[in-house]
Amino acid sequence: MKTEKEKMLAEGLYNAGHLSLVEERRRARQLTRLFNQTTEEQKTYRVELLKQLFKQTGEKLYIEPTFKCDYGKNITIGENFYANFDCIILDVAEVEIGNNVLFAPKVGLYTASHPIDATVRNSGLELGKRIKIGNNVWMGANASVNPGVTIGDNTIIGSGSVVTKNIPANVIATGNPCKVIRSITEEDQRQWQEAEDAYWRELEV
Description:
Blueprint: H1 4-9, E1 14-15, H2 19-36, H3 43-53, E2 61-63, E3 67-69, E4 75-77, E5 81-83, E6 87-90, E7 95-97, E8 102-103, E9 108-110, E10 112-113, H4 118-122, E11 125-128, E12 131-133, E13 138-139, E14 144-145, E15 150-151, E16 156-157, E17 162-163, E18 171-174, E19 179-183, H5 186-204
Parallel strand pairs: 2-5, 3-6, 4-7, 5-8, 6-9, 7-12, 8-13, 9-14, 12-15, 13-16, 14-17, 16-18
Antiparallel strand pairs: 1-11, 10-11, 18-19
């Protein structure tokens, strides 16, 4: 028979009140409380706490306090991750975040869900669906990602978006519900690369 955690990570109905899951959430609360109480002089300690909290991370990550999550151990983060203030990740299902990902303030990833049927919902059983964020993704302020969503590589999600369905790679998407506005083009890449080149040339003068 599967444990409640195994049911949860398999994206089936599970009992969130089971003592084993309560204990795991308590551990996450302790670590996030310690993290959120750190000062700017404790950057190394902050990273140590995050590495204890998460399932896996790259070598370079930076999260501005405050940060909150359910379990932490269901979150995998790639290299060069940055999250601004007040990020929330509800990780009752697995959350995978790629390399070079930027979160503006108040970004939320919410794998948690509840049964549609009220009788089942009122029984206390819950479920979750995994979220995957690709490489080089930029999430605007107050963007929310719903259960089961995948966001493709290089994509930009506009501020205030509510992402209810998968978003492909190499696009700009925004809105509630979030929809693709346009593709990121070679012309976009050319213009920004020229701007970057000009920046570095100016520093050499």
